[in-house]
Amino acid sequence: MSRQTGPKAGKPEPLATPMEDTDIIDFEIIELFFFAYRDFVSDPDAILEKSGFGRAHHRVVHFVNRNPGMTVADLLETLKITKQSLARVLKQLIDSGYIRQVAGPEDRRQRKLYPTKSGRELALALAEPQSRRIERAFEGASAEVREGVKGFLSGMRDRQKAD
Amino acid sequence: MSRQTGPKAGKPEPLATPMEDTDIIDFEIIELFFFAYRDFVSDPDAILEKSGFGRAHHRVVHFVNRNPGMTVADLLETLKITKQSLARVLKQLIDSGYIRQVAGPEDRRQRKLYPTKSGRELALALAEPQSRRIERAFEGASAEVREGVKGFLSGMRDRQKAD
DNA sequence: AATTTATGTCAATGAGGCTGACATATCTTC
DNA sequence: GAAGATATGTCAGCCTCATTGACATAAATT
């Protein structure tokens, strides 16, 4: 059941009062996080647009540069997407000469992924404006706050699922 | 240990060294931010899926609840999307009884947006797991760090464009 | 009356996800 | 050595959410 989740009986009264922070809900941080992320990804988006790439390419280039030799399976696990989704993006990056595949030395079924020199340069170029933005956001912050921010971001992640 | 083979004709050299933090680039925070946001939006995503809604509906419901009486133009400005993109999402929310439109009292061309009671409840239900996640990430943090995190997130936003 | 503004809508497009099905090469196991 | 499992690739189709362009309507402004 529950075909219609929303009530449709007559005209529900519109509420005119803003939804404010309560003891349980902190809307302020929720919004801050939304806006911060929106603007954070806008810098690389603008650069990528010129090459006809998108956010998906950025993520792949970033992680392959951070973990050269990672396999396709590793990448799928990190990005939490399907291999079909990855395929198109990865192929474009390989065809454009930013990433190379090398058969695994132990297990030759594996395709180990490495950045090329220009792949490394691209990753750095994309990270640069983001880093400047981060540095600007940290201006005047104490070492304690800087560490606190890292701890906070880290704590926002899902806990490991036992399996 | 992976070994670099010699340069091959026409094939760019794959780089085997990981890209590390430098004085200019802080990859650690870039990644922390990526993972934090990915998991942050996963909670509401799971709830919305049941009603056939998506992230776009979430954003609209959230801001209309925070700013009852905002116009369509206000919403477009906040979300930085086009009115064609907003139209479908907004229509679904109105049809489902989560949001109501009221002609502006001064300017009757305007459509002022208000949440209904169930729209308010939906916004709260979506914010709840996010708030719990934030609270968990703040566990044991000093008041200084909490304020520092807000300052950081706030500093990540684009500065106002002069116009 | 003419123009501008706020909004709505139709049509087409694209990026980036998804599922299902199947192919290939390689490794592991019996 | 045959059979099965694993890592990857690929084809085909579908979905959501964004885009642009063009045009429609109603109301405000000049």
What sequence of helices (H) and strands (E) makes up the elements of chain A? Answer: HHHEHHEEHH
Contiguous helical run count of chain A: 7
Largest interface: A-B, 81 and 79 residues
Distance between the termini of chain A: 33 Å
| Beta-strand share of residues of chain A | 5-15%
- Average predicted local confidence, pLDDT of chain A: 88
General shape of chain A: elongated
Range of helix content of chain A: 55-70%
Sum this structure up briefly.
The structure is a homodimer of 163-residue chains. Chain A is mainly α. Chain A is 56% helix and 7% strand.
Describe the 3D structure.
Chains A, B: Keywords: DNA-binding, Transcription, Transcription regulation. Chains A, B: This is MarR family transcriptional regulator. Chains A, B: Pfam families: MarR_2. 2 copies of one chain form a homodimer. The first copy, chain A, is mainly alpha-helical and 163 residues long. Chain A has 7 helices and 3 strands, in the order αααβααββαα. A 3-stranded antiparallel sheet of chain A has the order 1-3-2. In chain A, strand 2 and strand 3 form a beta hairpin. Chain A starts with 26 loop residues before the first helix and ends in an 8-residue tail after the last helix. Chains A and B meet through helix 1, helix 3, strand 3, helix 6 and helix 7 of A and helix 1, helix 2, helix 3, helix 6 and helix 7 of B. Chain A binds a DNA duplex (30 and 30 nucleotides) through helix 5.
